[in-house]
Amino acid sequence: MFMRGRKIVNIINIIITTLLYAVLISVMAVVVSMRVSGEDVSLFGYKMKTVLSGSMEPGIQTGSIIAIKEPEPNYTFEKNDVITFITDEEKLITHRIDKVRNDNKSYVTKGDANDAVDLEPVRRENIIGVYTGFTIPYLGYVSTFVNSKEGLALLLILPGIGLIFYSVFLISKTFTKLDTTNNNTSYHSKK
């Protein structure tokens, strides 16, 4: 029975070690790819964007992560579609189409929480995605922190420190086990 418990503990140790390494490697891969490409995370063709303002509340909360999908070239935008577009000032905005103009080539948009429509119409070529309805509230705050220098350092250092402490724990446990085995062998040889 004692050996069976020890095997279970060893299996749990292997699982924990594997998970820690997997998390460390995954985080490093995502962070490096985001830094190199300069783009947001993309999963299965959906881009994840962080909402920085409350203009679309209550439907989309400030600090949320939303999924957008790049529209097909022949996609027909309609009133009430929620789109993400880039402004002339290179800002990303997610707002609802309030009015379709000029044969589906420009759109008047408005944030749900705003009283008035946006001043500048959005040209079709400036639309980078259509909101899919998928939102994770508050995760955008984490994403913003992770993309900061402090967050990047913390995200890469913490799993490394965790692995070091876990390795020290396993080594000390092994030495204790060896010491106990040596003491038992010495005791039996003296008899």
The name CATH uses for the topology of the largest domain is Umud Fragment, subunit A
Per CATH, the superfamily of the largest domain is Umud Fragment, subunit A
Could you say which overall geometry the principal axes of the C-alpha atoms support?
elongated
- Alpha-beta classification: alpha+beta
Write the layout of secondary structure elements.
Elements: H1 2-37, E1 42-43, E2 46-50, E3 65-69, E4 82-86, E5 92-101, E6 106-110, E7 122-123, E8 127-136, H2 139-146, H3 149-190
Helix pairs in contact: 1-3
Structural features:
single chain, Umud Fragment, subunit A, elongated, 8 strands
Structure description:
By secondary structure, this protein is an alpha+beta fold. The chain has two domains: 1-38; 42-142, Umud Fragment, subunit A. The chain contains three helices and eight strands, in the order αββββββββαα. The chain has helices spanning 2-37, 139-146, 149-190, and strands spanning 42-43, 46-50, 65-69, 82-86, 92-101, 106-110, 122-123, 127-136. Strands 1-2-3-8-4-5-6-7 form an eight-stranded antiparallel beta sheet. Strand 5 (92-101) and strand 6 form a beta hairpin. Helix 1 packs antiparallel against helix 3 (149-190). The chain is elongated. The model has no long low-confidence stretch (mean pLDDT 80).
